[in-house]
Write a structure and sequence with these properties.
12% of the residues lie in helices and 46% in strands. By secondary structure, the protein is mainly beta. The strands form 8 sheets. It has a 27-stranded antiparallel sheet that branches. Pfam families: CarbopepD_reg_2.
Length: 943
């Protein structure tokens, strides 16, 4: 037919234009196209000016008045993701498969108004609380998963995280967070410090997630994946947003305003955001919250090839911490109890304040080398401080050259103030226990006035401060440089590479905050037995310090990292596959500023430079026999350096390194079946991860070391191996135009796979020598942990829920979430030979193996179910959008434990046996409880 038309045109020789148009049409008909349409999910009306982007190439088009779009030039082949976005609607990502010389037609794409509010709802809650926490119990990767397309990962972030669920039982240092291509994970513990950008939700919406081992365009990534948060003003449309929020979770009020100029004709674009979050206390008693957030970014799109951007982030925050407690304390005071605060002049004052002030400055250069290649070069500088305050009650005076003094422990939940202590020590006179219980119920908080009175009375005698408030400070200065190359070699092959450099100087010290009316504090160790050992700094003996001075310890960490990765992705009609290789070189050094009296020979000056070389290789294959059924398989093997936190056994006092320290090794594999039907999407995954040669360090006071000795120790667990085996299922079904159902299941088993080595270090004094320590070090051999469960939140979690969206733009959803197989963190010391050994090195003569097995049985917490509700409404008023949404979590007010740990105080069989024989153990395990019923409400105006 087309040939006949050409003949007619030539014979008539009149309509050359018609011939040209038909030739163009013919060439198109033999090409590769993507065409489709976008409609409102509720009204089913077409939506104009929707941005459609092919994520792998960044090609973009907009829908016309009929909601229709088409890609016709340089359409990439294989599995692609279409990013569908418009202001006032939720951004969606649609997976498609493009075959050569075929047309992909998708006219069933829908956008839903204000669905992003659901994502924001949980992002706010998580980033302001759990993700800010500095305890491993609160560690998760929810901030990584909120941008996921996958229903399982969204549910893990939104529904499971309040129970401190960990994806695959893994720590969040197995994930990588980047902002504008710059890695934000800390050298110290490998985790991102989420509070560094807390409150900036509006400018964090543009996220690119690479889940699990899937390839990333920016870095090699961790085994839990990576996310790049893009904060480029040129990629945000003009407009603003004003938000007010109220909650009883971490803060009580939030105000936020954001404005974006959009890309101007001059090539300039800017974006600003300011937020404040505050509250006298959240759900836990005495947990004050005070945080401000400032963001500014300017970008100049110079031409089609070059763009320059400058970004500044400043989010100072102060928040009061809450305490883990024994069951005895919870039974007396309830799950909201927090021992860290007390009344002062009619206000609640928390002794444990975490303050984070770490601004970030970024410079970014984006260079489109040609239509196929782009180079992104970044420079970032982060500086500031993290402070964690606490009370000191060991202030002393020098009497004839010997330190004397010290005060009573001000903790209201100190074991010697609780009824169980008096029941144990005075079993024949329970009046003492009754009196302790009565006093604890009446007050049970820090007595700030007593601290002032004690210091004032000692000052009248010419003495120093007995009590002081100080903070453990970390002042980091970090420079990051990197270059990222993305190159589309042809329609089938994409090449990614980067090289990164990071350099850190970290000052670590204690600083006096408040002397409670005293004029000075004697900077020595009050527990030492001679004057030299007592000196925190032999270079400044018997030094008197005032508020604002450094004391106790002072040292620097120096760290440097260079890493690179190369990745190649292959995309074809029926199969995609990739392979990536990464190499890194890391150096650490500790420089002591103080010469510690307990370790005079190896605490001062430059320490040994440690060098670690790591590498990683990963690959994956996606098989797509038809677009509705997909098989995905991935595997990786990596080695990485230990974190600074787990490299030095007692960095505050000396340069000692963990024995036999070397790189941590990880091998992992997963396989998934993915179902994509018009109304049902599902994914079933099985995985296995093996981690080897890991280390942990903890600090505690132990009774029963080498017999009946009591020593403050650093516990080093070295050469840890763990297994992580499990399966994941996520399914969602759009059963009607307004109702969606979802179901998720995570079934895992996370265990110790070996018996790691156990070492203890402590002060080299008479007490430690009596306990068998040599120069403050003792090798306890193996800790018999094999087959014990990891304290990684619930090993099994299930969720079912629904969501209703009305044509009048209101919505409502509910979920029921079940959690099982949550375990306490066991004490390695009680699983070592120390548990069975008396002071003479021989086994206890009264050791009962059956009773010991019962004492060492790992506690499993009760199963529990939590029901959550969420809903909202949006209105369009002129060219503005007004929205309201709210959520209620744990609507049935279920009481449940989320985690806990065995105290290491009872280190041997006799100590643990005698304590557990009591009706209420004195040194019982400590727990965290989940919140009862909480709410979050949000009102916003978008213009």
């Amino acid at each position: 037919m087309i040939i006949n038309v050409f003949c007619i045109c030539f014979k008539k020789k009149k309509n050359i234009l018609v011939m040209v148009l038909l030739m163009i049409f013919t060439s198109f008909s033999q090409g590769t196209f993507i065409k489709g349409g976008v409609i409102d999910a509720v009204s089913l009306q077409p939506i104009q000016d929707v941005s459609i982007t092919i994520e792998s190439t960044k090609q973009a088009v907009y829908t016309d008045a009929s909601g229709v779009f088409m890609f016709s030039a340089k359409v990439p082949l294989g599995e692609q993701i279409l990013r569908i976005s418009k202001v006032g609607y939720t951004t969606k990502r649609y997976p498609i498969i493009v075959n050569e010389n075929e047309t992909v037609s998708i006219f069933d794409m829908t956008l839903e108004r204000a669905v992003s509010d659901i994502q924001e709802l949980f992002t706010i809650s998580l980033s302001d609380d759990e993700l800010d926490s500095d305890t491993s119990e609160f560690d998760n990767i929810s901030g990584l998963l909120v941008s996921s397309l996958d229903v399982f990962q969204r549910t893990a972030a939104f529904e499971f995280s309040p129970s401190f669920f960990k994806m695959r039982g893994l720590d969040s240092n197995n994930s990588t967070v980047l902002i504008n291509g710059i890695k934000m994970n800390k050298f110290y513990n490998g985790r991102p410090q989420w509070s560094n950008w807390g409150g900036l939700n509006d400018v964090m919406r543009n996220r690119e997630l690479s889940a699990g081992l899937s390839p990333s365009s920016y870095n090699f990534g961790g085994i839990l994946g990576s996310v790049n948060i893009t904060m480029r003003p040129s990629q945000v449309k003009s407009g603003g947003r004003l938000t007010y929020s109220s909650s009883n979770r971490s803060y009580t009020n939030r105000l936020m305003t954001t404005y974006s100029s959009g890309l101007q004709k001059s090539g300039w674009a800017y974006m600003l955001s300011i937020a404040r979050r505050w509250g006298n206390e959240g759900y836990q008693d005495g947990t004050s919250y005070n945080a401000n957030s400032f963001f500014g970014s300017v970008e100049n799109v110079i031409n089609e090839k070059h763009s320059l951007g400058i970004t500044g982030i400043y989010t100072p925050s102060r928040r009061g911490k809450s305490s883990p407690n024994t069951q005895e304390v919870y039974d007396l005071k309830g799950i909201k109890y927090n021992e860290y605060w007390g009344w002062q002049q009619g206000e609640k004052r928390n002794a444990r304040i975490k303050e984070v002030v770490e601004p970030v400055l970024m410079f970014n250069h984006y260079w489109n080398l040609n239509n196929q290649a782009a180079l992104n070069t970044n420079i970032a500088y982060q500086f500031g401080s993290i402070g964690n305050s606490r009370l000191d009650y060991n202030g002393t005076d020098l009497i004839n050259g010997i330190p004397e003094g010290g005060g009573a422990n001000p903790s209201p939940a100190y074991y010697q103030k609780l009824p169980s202590y008096f029941e144990r020590n005075f079993p024949d006179d329970l009046e003492f226990a009754y009196g302790a219980q009565k006093q604890f119920l009446k007050d049970g908080q820090i007595n700030w006035d007593h601290l002032y009175e004690a210091n004032s009375l000692n000052a009248l005698k010419g003495g120093n401060a007995i009590y002081a408030l100080y903070e453990d400070r970390v002042d980091d200065r970090q420079l990051t440089l990197n270059t990222i190359l993305n190159w589309e070699l042809n329609d089938h092959i994409i090449w990614n590479a980067s090289i990164n450099y990071r350099n850190l100087k970290s000052e670590n010290f204690a600083q006096v905050i408040d002397l409670f009316g005293a004029s000075s504090y004697l900077d020595i160790d009050g527990f030492a037995t001679n004057s030299d050992d007592a000196q925190n700094d032999l270079l400044n003996p018997n030094r008197m310090v005032n508020e604002g001075d450094r004391f106790k310890y002072n040292f620097n960490f120096l760290a440097r990292e260079i890493n690179t990765y190369i990745q190649t992705q292959f995309r074809y009609a029926k199969v995609d596959f990739y392979i990536a290789v990464g190499v890194n070189n890391t150096q650490y050094r500790r420089d002591g500023i103080y010469k510690n009296g307990g370790f005079p020979d190896y605490s001062f000056g430059k320490g040994k430079t440690l060098t670690f070389t790591g590498f990683g290789v990963k690959g994956g294959l996606t098989y797509k026999p038809i677009s509705k059924h997909i098989i995905d398989v991935n595997a990786s093997y990596t080695t990485r350096p230990p974190t600074l936190q787990n490299t030095y056994s007692n960095a505050r006092e000396n340069n000692s390194i963990v024995p036999n320290i070397s790189e941590e090794k990880t091998a992992t594999v997963d396989a998934s079946y993915i179902l994509r039907l018009p109304f049902v999407k599902a994914k079933l995954t099985g995985y296995y991860t093996k981690i080897a040669n890991a280390n942990t360090i903890s600090f505690f006071f132990a009774d029963g070391i080498g017999g009946d000795n009591a020593v403050f120790v650093q516990e080093i667990l070295q050469g840890i191996e763990t297994n992580h085996l499990g399966g994941e299922l996520g399914i969602e079904a759009q059963v009607t135009q307004t109702i969606k159902l979802k179901g998720v299941a995570s079934v895992g088993q996370f265990t110790y796979a070996n018996n790691p080595n156990l070492f203890l270090t402590t002060e080299a004094n008479d007490a430690s020598k009596q306990a068998g320590f040599i120069d403050g070090f003792k090798d306890f051999g193996k800790s018999y942990l094999k087959n014990y469960k990891l304290a990684a939140g619930p090993h099994r979690a299930y969720s079912i829920g629904f969501e209703y969206r009305d044509p009048e733009y209101w919505w409502f959803g509910a979920t029921a979430n079940m959690f099982t197989n949550t375990y306490i963190d066991v004490s390695p010391l009680t699983r070592s030979l120390n548990f069975t050994t008396d002071f003479d090195g021989n086994p206890f003569n009264d050791y009962d193996e059956d009773l010991a097995a019962e004492l060492l049985k790992q506690e499993q917490f009760d199963d529990y179910m939590v029901i959550n509700l969420v809903g909202g409404k949006s209105w369009k008023v002129g060219n503005k959008y007004i929205g309201f949404f709210a959520s209620v979590n744990n609507i049935l007010d279920k009481v449940y434990k989320t985690g806990g740990f065995e105290q290491g105080r009872n280190a041997n069989y006799r100590q643990l046996r005698d304590d557990n024989a009591l009706e209420t153990p004195v040194f019982d395990s400590k727990y965290w409880y989940g919140r009862g019923t909480t709410y979050f409400m949000n009102l916003y105006v978008r213009f």
